[in-house]
Amino acid sequence: MEQWTGPVQPLLRLLCHVLTSGRLAARDDGTSRGETASEVLVARALAEDSDSPDFCHAYGLSALAARTFLLALRVAPAAVRSFWEQLPRRRDRDLVEKLVARSFSPVLFLAEAAAASTQLEAHADRLTDIEASVTRRAPQLVLQLAREELRAELCVLLPPAFPLRLATAEPPEKMPGIPKPRIRNWMLQARQVLAGQKPMVVGRVMLMWARSFAVAFDGVEDCPICYNVVHLTTQTIPRKACPTCKHKFHNECLYHWFKTSAKTTCPLCTQPF
Questions:
Q1: SMART domains per the record (predicted)?
Q2: Topology (CATH) of 113-216
């Protein structure tokens, strides 16, 4: 973060001055200098192909300011957030927040979704037996996880002025087979990543959750009694292992087996438990 403080702050102020049509003071003393840009020009500049030879000629300083500010939001979101929080006037903070929410956050929302999908695809070989995908439900990005009959989701909410406002992870309604203390730990890790200084944080969080989900079920087989990985009532996975054949059963299934059979032997190898 230190390498982005100091000289970068005046640059960000100047960019915002240009992009807000001069309504944000270009310098801390409140004076305004330089060209201005309308919101229409900002939107056009962001939609334009920056590799086009006519790019700069068409929009001039407006296009360069929009592209540069977008780049700063993508690669150094914490630095831009710090600049915004340190603006001395409430009016200026509101102005920058509205600018980001209206013109830049929609672009960044799509960029975060694409980056998250790319990260999951790049690490697919480490997500054993897990299907992971990212869907857009504005203003949320949703990680969908599947393993056979198991389904789970993680929703990440991107606020209107993202990344000036931090993204937040919403606790899943249910996570079959995962103990609640472990889910709480995952949520704590997700919040730490989302509050960090690195770019493309949504993809990092979703990859972390997908890996954790895969590891949690790595090597887990169906309960030989109910033929399910997750118990329908308790939402737990098989943990009680036979000391002889090593097959694992749901505690509830095993208890029911002992009760109905009037025996305390393994349903598979018939050896004493």
A1: FANCL_C (SM01197), RING (SM00184)
A2: Ubiquitin Conjugating Enzyme (3.10.110)
